[in-house]
Amino acid sequence: MNVTIEPMLESDAPEVMRIYEEGLNGNNATFETNLPEFETWIAGKRPDCRLVARLDGSSPSLGGWAVLSPTSKREVYRGVCEVTVYVSNHAQGMGVGTALMGALVAESEAAGIWTLYSSIFPENVASVKLHERHGFRTIGRRERIAFHPTTKTWRDTVIMERRSKTVGL
User: Fold this and answer.
1) What is the DSSP string of 1-53?
2) Residues 109, 164: contact at Cβ < 8 Å?
3) How far is CA 137 from CA 37, 48, 121, 123, in A?
4) pTM, whole model, 2 decimals?
5) Which helix H or strand E contains 93, and what residues bound it?
6) What would the pLDDT profile of 78-116 be if each residue is shown by its tens digit?
7) Is 151 helix (H, G, I), strand (E, B) or coil?
């Protein structure tokens, strides 16, 4: 199956939210428990680094998405962003995450981003490995950082970071 990475469009909102909801339901992607309104959610993302993965011959056709969120409004942190990548349940193991992350790294560098970071549940081994394959390294672990309201457990997160080899040197 062919995977095509394209900019996220407003018309992608229902599928983006469907995939996000799959992540919420899996309890291993986020501490969030309620699906936000697309307009509210997307307002906190960088407009130049929002991608979707389209799958040829698949229904639904969207296999995943990736976005960057600014970490601060302060000018000194303009080149630091948080990475979020979600792959639909039906597209896992098909290279969608790899395609999205590769394109997102390229987009981030084109946008002048020098540091990417992610906060990942350590149990989400696929996400940790995806980040490692794209040059992220583990810089720390936050133990019992927050209480997951659905699973009713305290959860750790692993902090991973990627420094650009071309931007911000």
Assistant:
1) --EEEEE--GGGHHHHHHHHHHHHHHTSS-S--SPPPHHHHHTTS-TTSEEEE
2) yes
3) 32, 25, 15, 16
4) 0.93
5) none
6) 999 999 999 999 999 999 999 999 999 999 999 999 999
7) coil
